[in-house]
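Q: I'm a student working through a structural biology exercise. My instructor gave each of us a protein and asked us to get a predicted structure, then write a short paragraph describing it. Mine is Sulfatase. I'm not confident about reading structure output yet, so if you can add a plain explanation after the C-alpha cells, that would really help. Here is the sequence I was given:
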Amino acid sequence: MNELRKLKHKPILLFSFILLLKSAVAWYVVFDDGLNWSMVLTEVPIFIIVFSLIEWFAGKRKVLYYMVANLSITLIYFAVLMYYKYYGVIATYHALRQVKKVANVGESTYSLIAPYYLFVFVDLVFFLLLVIRPKYIKGWMSNTSVRMNRKVLITLTAISLGICTFNIWPHHASMNEHKKAESMGILGYELYTVIVDTTEKEVLIDSDEIKQQAVNKIKGVEILDNPKYWGMNKEDNLIVVQMESFQNFLIGLTINGQEVTPNLNKLVKENTYFNNFYTNAGQGTTSDAEFVVNTSFYAPENKPATSSDYMNKRLPSLPRLLGDNGYFTATFHTNSVEFWNRSALYEALGFTHYYDQSFYGDVDHIAFGASDEVLFAKTAQELYRLNAEEQPFYAMVISMSAHHPFHIPEEKYKMELPRNYEDTLLGDYIRAQNYADYALGLFLEDLQSSGLWEDSLIVFYGDHQGIPMYTLSIEEKQQLSALIGHEYGYTDMFNIPFIVHSPGGELPPLMSGTGGQVDILPTVANLLGVSAESQLHFGQDLFNQDSNVLPIRHFLPTGSFVNDQSIYVTGNGYADGENYSLEDNESIPGGSREKQFEAAQRLLEMSNSYLLQLPDEVN
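A: Happy to help. First, here is the predicted structure for Sulfatase. I'll explain a few features afterward.
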C-alpha cells in the first residue's frame, strides 16, 4: 500500500505504467503480441520524453497536464487499434481528417469495438472522479507540485531520445508500414510520419513525361489497330451497377442448399464474367471506387479521393468522355450528396446530373439511406424515362444496403442461416448480401420488362472488400475457410466480381485474366466504340490485353500489387516480400518480378503527379 502511495506521488512513473498497459492492448490487436521488452523499449521512451517536458515546465497544475497527455496518447492507441481492425493498416494523423465521418458511420464504427478495448479508458473514469472531487485533486496536485531534479530529467530525456533514434532511424527506409510501426513503436511511427510529412516535400513527375504512350509502355500494353469487340455496343446506353462490399467468393456459394446470390449467379452464367478482378479502392472505399472507375486513375495516398486536392480540378473521366460523344450522364445514390464530399466528386468528374436522398427520400431506411429496393425501383423508372429521350445515357447506380456492419431489418431476411452463423459478422454479411442480391433481381426484372436490357451495355462489380481478415474471430475465420475451401486471405479479400452484359451476346462467357476497377473505363469505351486514347488513363481494355499489373494502395503495405499469378505484399523492401497465389491464397515463391514492383510504384507516382498538376478549375 505504501508503494502505491509513493507511486501516486511520482506521476512520471504512475502514468508511464498506465500507458504501458494501454500500449500492450494496442500491440495485442495490431501486432498479435502482448507485453514484451520490444514493446517496452519502443513505447516507453516516448512517454518519458513527454512527461519530462511536463516535469520541466509545469508547476502546480502538473497533474492536469499529465492527465491531458494521458488522454491524448490513449486516443492515439484507441484510434490505431480501431482503424487496424477494419483497414488492416496503421492509422496516422491523416486519418484524423476524416473524424467527422465517424459520426455518420457510427454503427459501423461501434461494431468493431471488442469489450476489452474499453480497458484503455478505465483510468480516465477514475481521474474524472478525482477532478470533480476538488479536495482530492488539490491534495494530489499539492503533493506532486515539486519539480523533479533537472539533472535526472536531462539524463532521462537524453537516454530516451537516444533509444527513440535507435528505434526509428534504422527502419525509416522500410516500405512496409506495419513492420515499420512494429520496429519504431506505435508512437514512434506516428511521430516519424508527422516529421517526414512536414520536412519532406513531395516530388512530382513532370506532366510532360506523363503520356499515354509512357503508361502503356510501363504496363506492357500493346495498342491494336483492330481491337476485338470494338463498337459492338455503339450508341447503347451504359449502366454501371456498383455493389456495396461485394466479394467474389459469394458467387456460386450455397449454404444448406440455398444460393446466397441466385440472381448474380444467373448473370454470371448468361453473360461475361471476370473471375480474377480486384478492387482498386483506397481509404475512401465506396467513394474511391466511384473515383477509380470513372477516371481510370488510382486512388490518392493517405486520404479519400473526395478529400484530396483532386476535387477542385476538371478530371479526365468517363462522364466527360461519353458526354463528348453525345451521352447524358448521371449517378444514383440514396445517401445525401454531401456525405463524403460527393457533391465535389461529381462536379470534378463532370456528371450532368446526380440523384441522391432528395430524390429517393428516406423511406424503408437501411444503412445510410433508402433501401436497395427503393434505389432500384425509382432508378428503373428514371432510366425508362431517360431511354425515351433521343440521346443515349450513362447511369452509375450505387447500392448501399449491404454496408458494414451488415445489419438489415429482420423483415428483409430472405434466407435461413445455421445457428452458428447468427450474431456473427460473417452471418450478417451473408444475409445482407443475400438481400442485396434479391433487390438486384427486382432491378433486373424491371430492366428486362422495360426493354432497357436490350438497349444497354450493363456492368456489375463490387466496390471493395466486405470481410476484413483482421476483423474476423478465430471461429469466423474457420467458418469462412470451410465455405471457400481454403484459408481466407488477401487474394479472397480483394477479389471482387466483374460481370458484363452486352445485348449482342457475342462476348466470351469467362475471362480469367487479371483486371481491376481501373480497367473498367477503357474496357467499356472499347465496347461502345469510343476511343479513350486522347484521354490519359491507367487501366487497359481487358478484352484485348493478356497481362496486367495492379498497384494496391492503402490496404496493404506500400509497393504491394496484383499480377497474373499472385498478390505481392511488400516486406521491408522488394526482396523480403511475399507472394500469395490468386487461386488459393497459398504463399508461393517467385510469383512476381522486380520489374513489376518498380512499375507499380511508377504508375502510382505518375497518376498522382498528373492529377495534382492539373489546373484548379471545375466546370
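A: Here are two points you could use in your paragraph. The radius of gyration is 27 Å. The longest strand covers residues 237-243. It's a good idea to check both against the output above yourself.
Q: Great, thank you!
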